[in-house]
């Protein structure tokens, strides 16, 4: 190990097919059937798919037309984001019984730092199992969990025993776990990067580990250092809970990289809706709208516009975002999009500045 592990116990909780599972819970007639939330057989994009639909290759971000072609019996369901938010709040209330260090990634997943926890339980694995049991008993849905010494490994581990399972990667197991991992399973390595790594003879973690920092930076730019570190179990990013900020933001990382501005615009509608809710919750508005773009190679770009008046309305935000999106061509496929509002109307008042949310061990 190149440097000692930080003494953290991190749980990554990921709800199983969240949107689709909520729809099946609320409508028992859909249980056991292939359903797609969002889109239609004629237009639109799938937001989520049930496990029954995933067997046919139906997944988020593909067109409704393609989804129906893959699965002729597919049932399309209109999204109900207010309902998903309602369920998400119940799940996060359970998290807060265990720790205040919670970093939401989206409505259906979050990191929890339980190094020091409210239950005084030294076993992060036991805590994860207890949290999953409570979610099932109190909310009615299943969740999967990954437990390890940092966010990167915990995120990968949560996908191992899905659905309704968990995996713990202990400190002394991290290196071997990553060495044996297929490179396409590394969080942050998208389809395009996977193909590039294959061309360079990198198929597993051990192949990646054999490459020097100079080699990786030469071929992957700034992302090279990230790959060099994470394959050695080095990922020191802390769990970021709510914090005071001079801006309000919302963002989303996609399972599949996006290359079409039309798909991006559709995703930005949902991000803008989340941002609008956060602005209204804090009773603030802003003048500066910023579009955040993170490409598949981990390079990042921001595009901003300052208006002559304060806004907090989703429609007005999207007018500016659409302008910023088409301001120039994308240089690569996109793995993350975000919108933030700054230059807030709190900056000249006595009002508290608003909150921006991101999202020896016994394991």
TrEMBL record:
A GO term, aspect molecular function: DNA-directed DNA polymerase activity
Name assigned to this protein: DNA polymerase IV
Residues given in the record as Mg(2+) binding sites: 14, 108
Primary localisation category: cytoplasm
Gene Ontology annotations for the cellular component aspect, listed alphabetically: cytosol
InterPro entries for the chain: DNA/RNA_pol_sf, DNA_pol_Y-fam_lit_finger_sf, DNA_pol_Y-fam_little_finger, DNA_polymerase-Y, DNApol_IV, PolY_HhH_motif, Rev_trsase/Diguanyl_cyclase, UmuC
Active site: 109
Compartments where found: Cytoplasm
Purpose: Poorly processive, error-prone DNA polymerase involved in untargeted mutagenesis. Copies undamaged DNA at stalled replication forks, which arise in vivo from mismatched or misaligned primer ends. These misaligned primers can be extended by PolIV. Exhibits no 3'-5' exonuclease (proofreading) activity. May be involved in translesional synthesis, in conjunction with the beta clamp from PolIII.
Domain UmuC per the UniProt entry, residue ranges: 10-190
Major enzyme class: transferase
Gene Ontology biological process: DNA repair; DNA-templated DNA replication; error-prone translesion synthesis; SOS response
Family: Belongs to the DNA polymerase type-Y family.
Catalyses which reaction(s): DNA(n) + a 2'-deoxyribonucleoside 5'-triphosphate = DNA(n+1) + diphosphate
Cofactors that this protein relies on: Mg(2+)
Site for Substrate discrimination, residues: 19
Organism of derivation: Flavobacterium faecale
Pfam families found in the cross-reference section: IMS, IMS_C, IMS_HHH
Co-factor remark: Binds 2 magnesium ions per subunit.
EC number in record: 2.7.7.7
UniProt entry keywords in alphabetical sequence: Cytoplasm, DNA damage, DNA repair, DNA replication, DNA-binding, DNA-directed DNA polymerase, Magnesium, Metal-binding, Mutator protein, Nucleotidyltransferase, Transferase
Subunit structure: Monomer.
